[in-house]
Amino acid sequence: MTRHPGAVPSFRSGSLRDPELTAALRTLELTVRRRLDGVLHGDHLGLIPGPGSEPGDAREYQPGDDVRQMDWSVTARTTHPHVRQTVADRELETWLVIDLSSSLDFGTALCEKRDLAVAAASAVTYLAGGSGNRIGAVVATGDRMLRIPARGGRVHAQAMLRRIATTPHAAEGVRGDLRGALESLRRPERRRGLAVVISDFLGPIDWERSLRALSGRHELLGIEVLDPRDLTLPDAGDVVLLDPESGRTREFSTTPKLRADFARAAAAHRDDVESTLRRCGAPLLSLSTDRDWIADVVRFVGARRHSYGAPSRGAGRR
Fold first, then answer.
1. In whole numbers, what is the pLDDT of the chain averaged over residues?
2. Which of 133, 162, 222, 258 has its CA 20 to 30 A from that of 152?
3. CB 292 within 8 A of CB 298
4. What distance in Å separates the CA atoms of residue 251 and residue 117, rounded to the nearest whole number?
5. For residues 264 and 233, is the Cβ–Cβ distance under 8 A?
6. Axis-axis angle for helices 154-165, 19-36 (nearest 10)
7. Torsion over CA of 95, 287, 280 and 232, rounded to 10 degrees?
8. Cα–Cα distance measured from residue 192 to residue 153, given in angstroms and rounded to the nearest whole number
């Protein structure tokens, strides 16, 4: 049997010492390294390449310079326009904000969304965790919040991914708390770095203010984890649907009109999510349980590197 290139191992085990979990994480690590090595080069791999955030020297403005880098204090003192150069960070601190609410315990294709969220966390850890960089995580299920301090090293990265993969599932009827996870990352204030938000972003968009506040101190990246059934309904006749975050069930007949209305509402919600992230300065990487997710990551990084400095809409989304 040929394994699909976008397949993700299942992380259903609830034990930190379960050998099946160890094997699944090892398989994921090997898959990420094999597919990304040779495509992304350099000691400081990045999902959002840029000039860095540490302040450097000021120099006189030259035509074509980014006016957002103007150093107004030096400009006022010298009466000549100056820009403040930045230097690349040699030690990056990355934080994963991972939504593992009940809506992610679902999947109809190659894996569950929860498994894909863990896979995305693994890819970010590999891309941002080398050369002395530190990485930590805030995991929210709705009824609990897990904070993993930012540290460096491969042993810490493996232990962090293991804890993420074994985070207990939320009880039925408990709503997710992405806003609370973002607020948890804001306080106490942490050093400037990269914040990666992994979620299906379903439900009310009540987290914009918290994300905007984070954007004042961190580079941001949104990773959207979806399943095809989040976007369209099949022609399945009469069905009973359960909302795991409210515990409510509804009986429907999947008529052509209902399926069309559902598709329009789902597309409108995705547009709202993308617009909200864009207003907060966060590019969006979209992953789906029915696609080769690592190929989507590679395409996203390549598009960001080739278009850095230019507006980007929906890279990795299709």
1. 82
2. 222
3. no
4. 29
5. no
6. 120
7. -140
8. 19
Widest pairwise Cα distance in the chain: 74
Residue written as token pair 């403005």: 61
> What is the separation, in whole angstroms, between the first and last Cα of the chain?
28
List the beta bridge partners of residue 83.
Answer: 59, 70
From residue 115, give the alpha-carbon distance in Å to each of 150, 167, 189, 297.
Answer: 22, 12, 30, 16
Q: Can you list the alpha helix ranges (DSSP code H) found in the chain?
A: 19-36, 72-78, 113-128, 154-165, 178-186, 208-215, 256-279, 293-306
- Number of CB atoms found within 10 A of residue 203's CB: 18
In this structure, what token pair is assigned to residue 298?
A: 């590679």
Annotate 222-238 with b (16+ C-beta within 10 A) or e (fewer): bbbbbbebbeebeeeee
Backbone angles phi, psi at 122, to 5 degrees: -65, -40
The confidence band for 317, taking pLDDT boundaries of 50, 70 and 90, is low
Judge whether residue 15 has pLDDT over 70: no
**pLDDT, tens digit, 9 for 90 and up, residues 143-183:** 899 999 999 888 999 899 999 999 998 887 788 899 999 99
> Are 199 and 224 within 8 A, CB to CB?
yes
C-alpha 52, offset from chain centre? 20
Angle between helices 208-215 and 178-186 (to 10 degrees): 30
Q: 30-76 pLDDT, tens per residue?
A: 887 777 765 554 444 455 555 455 555 678 888 877 777 788 888 88
Q: Report how far residue 277's alpha carbon sits from residue 2's, in angstroms, rounded to the nearest whole number.
A: 37
Beta bridge partners of 140: 99, 145
